[in-house]
Design a protein that fits this description.
It comes from Aurantimonas aggregata. By secondary structure, the protein is α+β, with helices and mostly antiparallel strands. It has a single domain, classed as Superoxide dismutase, copper/zinc binding domain (Immunoglobulin-like). The protein has two helices and eight strands. The strands form two sheets. It has a four-stranded antiparallel β-sheet with strand order 1-2-3-6, with no helix packed on it.
Amino acid sequence: MKLFATTSLATALLFAAPAFAQDATTAPTDTTAPTAPTDTPTPTAAPTEGAAAQTADGMEPVTVEMQHADGSSAGTVTITPTPHGLLLAADLSGLGDGERSFHLHETGVCEGDFTSAGGHYNPTDKDHGYMAENGPHAGDMPNFTATDGTAQFQTFNPMVAMSGGDAPLNDSDGTAIVVHDGADDYESQPSGDAGDRIACGVVFAAE
């Protein structure tokens, strides 16, 4: 009887051992730290400096100081950019009386007899004059009349811009406004038989 009890106890321990072993086994743990979800927006590219500069330059008026060959003042021309070209408001003096002409010239230098300003501004290689079949120059503009030596008027030039496009005034050569002592006939080459240069003003100086 004692032997049977001992045998039964041993058998019970034998079958219980796997269960004890299973309970003692440590369950595997995930030691990897959870990654917090991110909600970082994709940065938007900033506008380029060139585009910002172009925008800043877009609508800033420029006042051109006009002068006679002796250095005395011939008044001013204020140039205002628009989405469609340039608006020029002139307030000129010391011009004598009669019909006069003025143009944008290709070089931003006003010295001596003003031939330093070069020819008419013509970056698109056109003929001179509104009446020319292949005209006009980008720098061609209408005549005006001076009375008692003065003239106040406005004109619009849709062919030019301060910067950008086919005819920018602010290029490496700069640009000048030149007043001539005669009327432009709008067809003679290369400059409309407009007479001597009697006033000049630098819009953008040559580099």
